[in-house]
Amino acid sequence: MAATTSDAGTRRDFLYVASGAIGGVGLAAMAWPFIDQMNPSAAALAAGTAEIDLGAIQPGQQIVFKFRGHPLFVRRRTPAEIAESNAVDVNSLPDNNARNLNVADTALATDANRATKPEWLILIGVCTHLGCTPTVSTPQMPEGDYGGWLCHCHGSQYDTAGRIRKGPAPQNLAVPQYTFLSATRVKVG
Description:
Number of strands: 10
Number of helices: 4
Largest sheet: 4 strands, antiparallel
Radius of gyration: 28 Å
Mean pLDDT: 84
Low-confidence stretches: none
Distance between the termini: 80 Å
C-alpha cells in the first residue's frame, strides 16, 4: 500500500475555516446591537447644541441658559467693560490661556481671544476651582473687584472677560464652541 502526502488542504481544513468564518460573522451580528446602544440618543444629540436669541439682551445685562446640564452665561458687554478688559496685561493673569474652543489651544487670554464679537461674551458658568456657579456683578450689586463674576464659595474672582484674577480657581471660565447665525442669533455647541 502506498501513502500519498499533499500540501493541499483537506476537506476537514475547509470545514474548520468555513465554520470559524460563519461563527465570526454571527458573533459580530450579535454584538452590533450591544455596541450600537452605547451611542447617544437623538435627544442627547439635540441637547448638545442650543440656539439662543440675543435680541432681548440689553448692554450690561447677562442672561443664564442651561447648556449640557451647566449654566451658560451670555453677557452683552458695554463699551466700558470691553475697554477695561482690553487694558489688562495678559502676562499678569494667573491663567493666560484663552480656554476658548473657537481659537487655537495655545491662544493667549486677550479679550479678542475670549469673545468672537467684543460685545458678546459667552461662557460656561462653572467655577474652575470646585465647580460652583459664580454670580455676576452688576452696577446695582457689585461682586468682587473686577466687575465680572464672583464665586462666593471660595472667593474666586473673574473679570469682564471671564478670566481668573484672584482666588483659588486655576483656570479662566471656559468658552464653549459657538457660531453666530445672524446679528441676534447664536448656535452654541
